[in-house]
Amino acid sequence: MTERTVWNGLSMARRHAAQKGVRQCATHAGVHASSGRSAQRIDAQNPLAFPPQNMPPSRQHSRTVKHRPKVIVVGSGVMGASAAWHLSKAGAAVTVIERAPDALITATASSFGWVGAGASTPSDDLSAFTERLTALEEFGSIERDLGPLPIAARGALLWLPTENETAALVAEHRAAGTRMQRLARPQIAEKEPMLADPPSLAAWAPDDFALEPAAFARQLLAGAKVAGTCVRQGTVDTVEIAGNRIAGVVVEGQKLAADTVVLANGHGSRKLALTVGADLPIHESPAVLLRFATEADGLRHLICAQEMELRPALGGGLVAAADYPEDGESGLPILAARTGDAIAHLFGMWAAPDLLSIRVAQRPMTADGRPLCGGVGEIEGLYALVAHPGVILAPVLGRRCAESILRS
Predict the structure, then answer these.
(1) Per-residue pLDDT of the chain (408 residues; tens, 9 = 90+)
(2) Residue 75 Ramachandran class (φ > 0 left, ψ -120 to 50 alpha, else beta)
(3) Burial of residue 362 (number of CB atoms within 10 Å: 0-12, 13-18, 19+)
(4) What is 89-132 written as a DSSP string?
(5) CB 248 within 8 A of CB 256
(6) 406: how many CB neighbours lie within 10 A of its CB?
(7) What one-character DSSP code corresponds to residue 46?
(8) In 3-state terms, what secondary structure has residue 257?
(9) Distance CA 376, CA 110 (A)
(10) SS3 call for 397
(11) Three-class SS of residue 377?
């Protein structure tokens, strides 16, 4: 079984050890947005994905736009859903084209879901680090508007191969103004009693948290629908232009008119942009997401250590992120076994937890690492909204994309 999917993990542990949008608008009718490459899955079971619970009625949305622009957003993952929500509540007539009715197989569903700047440092990329801190502030306003977020864990514990490296990580964060703290072994054990052998020193990132990405995307999309967004399912074949101006898209042979088109479907955005002669600087980079069923449901926080990122799943079990093996697909069973053994060692378990699924996910990466959030080439009305890490950046980029479209 293959799935088109994109993962958002940061793979910070290995890094330290080695030291541009879419409009939504339509009724349910069957249209499928182009996506990135397929992902392989071994012994796969559907990942847990929970619909938003008790979402409060939408606040009174401002209708400040004199002319309601007709916007089509391609992609209903976290980027597209964020753009649709911000556009709709600002008064645009939005249609989202999503590739399938089953949210379990969207790109966003295979994201690790780490939100925050704990797994990065200013020295890696100051601009990206600052952007993540800014993005973190957006989640509070979303929660006030749409209700509780599908958060699986709050706070992150990180430790590097040596105590000096961990101390340097904390010092760099503190100098940058974050609330990261040093924790000694007794404090670590208090936060994570399940750890069999806590390190002598760990970094504690209290503002970081883990979301269930698919549930978060559905929450944003549900909010967008309340604000007036229409959703249509099917495959977008091409983008349509008239001269140098957007005319709409063709969905399975049917033309849909629009004033603006936002390409928010990951690597698939490049394919659609090429239909009008624009080449987006996007490539794919593989990573691996693993889910384990285990009785060790006492894990309370995000863990980043031993070349592994680990978090609890919202419905139970564990989610791990790892780098793609150097020997490719043939190395996946070995990677799964090694990750299971690492989890067992971390928690002092007699045996490795049962593997539920392992996915190879193609992350959409830009040539310079910067998000694509703005106009595409010389084509008026065509926007791109593509970034990694997507779950972290989607709220702030969706808002910026909407503001840019409504100003134009």
Answers:
(1) 333 333 333 344 444 444 333 333 333 333 333 333 333 333 333 333 333 434 444 443 444 455 789 999 999 999 999 999 999 999 999 999 998 665 444 568 788 999 999 988 999 889 889 999 999 999 999 999 999 999 999 999 999 999 999 999 999 999 999 999 999 999 999 999 999 999 999 999 999 999 999 999 999 999 999 999 999 999 999 999 999 999 999 999 999 999 999 999 999 999 999 999 999 999 988 889 999 997 655 899 999 997 789 999 998 899 999 989 999 999 999 999 999 999 999 999 989 999 999 988 888 999 998 999 999 989 999 999 999 889 999 999 999 999 999 987
(2) left
(3) buried
(4) HTT-EEEEEES-S-GGGSGGGG---EESSTT--TTT-HHHHHHH
(5) yes
(6) 17
(7) P
(8) strand
(9) 27
(10) helix
(11) coil
Q: In whole angstroms, what is the distance from residue 395 CA to residue 256 CA?
A: 27
Neighbours of 164 (CB within 10 A): 10
Report the candidate in 234, 237, 173 with the shortest Cα–Cα distance to residue 203: 173
> What are the tokens at 84?
């649709």
pTM of the model as a whole: 0.83
- The span from the CA of 308 to the CA of 270, in Å, is 31
d(CA 381, CA 386): 16
Q: Are the beta carbons of 388 and 363 closer than 8 angstroms?
A: yes
Rounded to an integer, what distance in angstroms lies between the CA atom of residue 403 and that of residue 86?
8
Report yes or no: 26 and 230 within 8 Å, Cβ to Cβ: yes
Residue type (1 letter), 82? S
Report d(CA 184, CA 198) in Å as an integer. 9
Residues in the chain, total: 408
Distance CA 162, CA 17 (A): 9
Q: What is the maximum alpha-carbon separation in the chain? A: 67
Neighbours of 67 (CB within 10 A): 9
Element (H, E) at 17: helix 12-17
Looking at the chain, the number of H-run helices and the number of E-run strands are 10, 20
What strands lie across the sheet with 236-242, from one edge to the other? 236-242, 245-251, 254-257
Give the gyration radius of the chain's Cα atoms. 21
Residue 389 to residue 394: CA distance in whole angstroms = 8
